[in-house]
Amino acid sequence: xxxxxxPGLPSLNQSKVARRHRAASGKVALRGGxxxxxxxxxLLLLVVGGFLYFRSAQAELEQQRAALMTKQRAxxxxxxxxxxxxxxxxxxxxxxxxxxxxESIDTKVDWEKLFHSPGVYLRARVVDAQSIDSVRKAATxxxxxGFTSCLIVDPTAKGPTTGKVCTFSNECESGxxxxxxxxxxxxxxxxxxxxxxxxxxxxxxxxxxxxxxxxTDTAITVYDRGLDSVTKVDIPLAIDIxxxxxxxxxxxxxxxxxxLPPAIPGAEETEAERVQRxxxxxxxxxxxxxxxxxxxxxxxSATGELRDAGTRPSATGQEAVAARSRVANSCALALExxxxxxxxx
Length: 345
Known about the structure:
Blueprint: H1 9-25, H2 36-97, E1 104-105, H3 111-115, E2 119-125, H4 132-139, H5 146-151, E3 177-178, E4 184-185, E5 191-192, H6 193-200, H7 205-213, H8 217-244, E6 247-253, H9 271-276, E7 280-288, E8 294-302, H10 318-343
Parallel strand pairs: 2-5, 2-6
Antiparallel strand pairs: 1-8, 3-4, 6-7, 7-8
Helix pairs in contact: 2-6, 2-8, 6-8
């Protein structure tokens, strides 16, 4: 149909021409009546606002990070002189014990008295005591075991899984710490070197690197909370117990002649534990604290057997048998060591 036969078409055509003109000039209104230039300005404001918010959030995150590192440096200034000498002494002792050396026992030492005194304990494999880094890595898994139970007397010691469940030490009562089993306990002698390394963790490059790479305020808050726990509980406790320690005891297990025994399928057993459940020899060193004087260095055999005293049979699963073997061998090692040092008094 042509325009001359349709009176409404000229006005319709004019309307189309007007819309094209407005579209060309950027003044076309979107559905709902919002002109596109208004929409574009709004989008620009959102982008700019988001950028400014990101900059502000990053600045706040960097402030939190800087405040945390300031606290860490202040803590390190106090912590270092009190705990680093002990760490260095024990590490040096472990490295020297890993090397071949002459056996010796100081016959002037009152060994019975020493065994009733507070001390520190580190146990690892000989192959894990070849460098400072390997010693430190092994120390994180060093705990009291059958050797210390049969050698050191601490009447206040309790089972490691007793006490209030915890995540951080500042959740525990005064004088307690959150142990490796996530229970609040008072430290028992001999004190694990693991405690010392946990207190010293905030001085490590690993901790500093993790804080520098933390990308959220939540992550910084977690590190800050952990630092507060270490500062308020772990460090004072570590300083107290390690300054009371009279000796450092290091045990290095030699791998059996046939190599590591096969792993138990499905069992969470470390290589060190696999060695301990097998008959083997071990090197034992004792140093006086804080002087660092060598008191004893001997080799002994870790070969023992636990026998049932009652009528009820013990658990017979592979893991249970392995655990019994570790206790038996470690206790036999302690008794042989004790026998040697006492005979030479």
